[in-house]
Amino acid sequence: MNHRVLFTWIFVHCVASLLYSIHGENAVPEGENDELNKLSENKVLDRSIKYNMRKSLDLDQEGCYLQTGKKECLEKCSFNATAKTIFIIHGWTMSGMFENWMHKLVSAVMQRENEANVVVVDWLSRSQQLYPDAVNHTLGVGLDIANMLNWLQEELQLPLQNVHLIGYSLGAHVAGYAGTHVQGTVGRITGLDPAGPMFEGVEEEKRLSPDDADFVDVLHTYTREALGVSIGIQQPIGDIDIYPNGGDIQPGCALADVLSLTGNFMDVLKCEHERSVHLFVDSLMNKDHMSFAYQCTGPDRFKKGICLSCRKNRCNNIGYNARKMRKRRNTKMYLKTRADTPFGGYHYQMKMHVFNRKHSDHADPIFNVKLYGANNDTTNLLVDVQDGKIGLNLTNTFLVFTEDDIGDLLKIRLVWEGEADSLGSFWKYFKSSLWSQKTKPILAVRRIRVKAGETQKKFAFCAEDLSKIEISPGESKTFVKCPDGWDVKPRKRVPM
Ligand SMILES: *[C@@H]1O[C@H](CO)[C@@H](O)[C@H](O)[C@H]1NC(C)=O
Ligand SMILES: *[C@@H]1O[C@H](CO)[C@@H](O)[C@H](O)[C@H]1NC(C)=O
Ligand SMILES: *[C@@H]1O[C@H](CO)[C@@H](O)[C@H](O)[C@H]1NC(C)=O
Ligand SMILES: *[C@@H]1O[C@H](CO)[C@@H](O)[C@H](O)[C@H]1NC(C)=O
């Protein structure tokens, strides 16, 4: 076990034992009917839930508070009923204080939407409890928010379509309850790594679901499972469900990476869960550098590069810039990201037919590619073959991700890792040292077809010298624009 796995395991174990010792496996929030009755009697006046409307980017300023039924607060806060209204809802907390991400998210939202009513829903007193108790409060807090929205509708004719609820972790399910119980339909709910424990696999009414708003988008960043539980919910629960980096292992979240950056151990535990917030903040701040996600049935097919299509709305921006699509449910989408902001990178699908020319039936080649672009070149990138092996006499498809914009692709160098590169693997070393001139494995690659995910452009690259298409361990071949044409099957570009 590496350290990250170990500590995650400990953390999850704590959460899990907390859950199971108190509630048993099929725990369900109690008291739902009580809360519903209270709402119908219109008596929910729980002042422990606060609606802090942010007025200034200076986060030390307290802002002002909205209270259901108190009209004077609306004026005092200069609530603008024709502008967007964005509620930010935190999750379970151990400290009983706002965490750093909250400040980042609030200021990013305010900078992007400077006329919007930005309201932080403060339910700290109810969330700073044992996890199962905090879960038990999500319905009540959701109802309270629904109540607030109903009042705003009555008082100011607030159009619910302009309301966007953003919930992190447990807060995502709070937003779900608010959306279920409000009179009408809110415009949008964004779930940032919605909590998994006690929500995975439960009925739609008891968690965030596509019916809770006109558009429900979800970012899943910490779905790795330990002991049958994951901190973030694994199943798709929105209209679109985006799984950056497969939804589990986030780059930059390894123990050493985080400790060297912040020196704080808690940050290691939170890194992947909180990544959802930082990706969302990134989407608010970096409007010119949007990240795209691509619809795919699963992470393995995505990693093979099969799913880079934008046809029929199969791709979308992530985070705040996500476009509402014709109503669909639980559409899983994937992308790779960088380890830090700006998180967006560039995806390429590559297809090449690898011919087995000689002695290669068991050669098990390892390929690298280097991409040369108009602006910059990449380093040697390992061709990550999802099935573990390059298929011989077959067309192989794989995904290449670059962090930098290299500009239009000009040429590709394909490298078959030779002896010098495979010292890590004794068997490969042993095998390759046996290769004499007579038994040297020889493969051949004639063309590499490329599709760029971000631009949807397709290109074909041919061996520089078409009479020399053979490659052996330790050698490289360069592929340039094919003489018979640069673009392949030019297609209408999909407007982003
Ligand atoms: C859940 O909340 C209700 C009130 O909302 C309370 O009566 C009940 O005891 C709580 N259950 C647990 C396990 O805390
Ligand atoms: C209220 O918001 C609308 C829409 O964003 C804007 O046009 C209007 O100027 C705002 N009113 C005030 C008083 O800020
Ligand atoms: C690939 O084709 C070559 C020549 O047609 C043949 O010799 C070889 O056995 C085939 N290899 C595999 C793995 O199918
Ligand atoms: C090219 O990439 C290298 C490393 O990835 C980077 O240091 C350099 O600044 C880039 N150059 C340009 C012109 O973008």
Automatic annotation (TrEMBL):
Keywords: Calcium, Disulfide bond, Glycoprotein, Heparin-binding, Hydrolase, Lipid degradation, Lipid metabolism, Metal-binding, Secreted, Signal. The keyword Disulfide bond applies. It comes from Cynoglossus semilaevis. PANTHER family: ENDOTHELIAL LIPASE (PTHR11610:SF13), LIPASE (PTHR11610). Its EC number is 3.1.1.3. It catalyses: a triacylglycerol + H2O = a diacylglycerol + a fatty acid + H(+). Belongs to the AB hydrolase superfamily. Lipase family. This is triacylglycerol lipase. It comes from the Eukaryota. The active site is at residues 169, 193, 273. Ca(2+) binds at residues 204, 207, 212. Residues 1-24 form the signal peptide. Coiled coil: none annotated. GO terms for cellular component: extracellular space. GO terms for molecular function: heparin binding; lipoprotein lipase activity; metal ion binding. Its main location: secreted. GO terms for biological process: lipid catabolic process. Residues 346-481 form the PLAT domain. It is found in: Secreted.
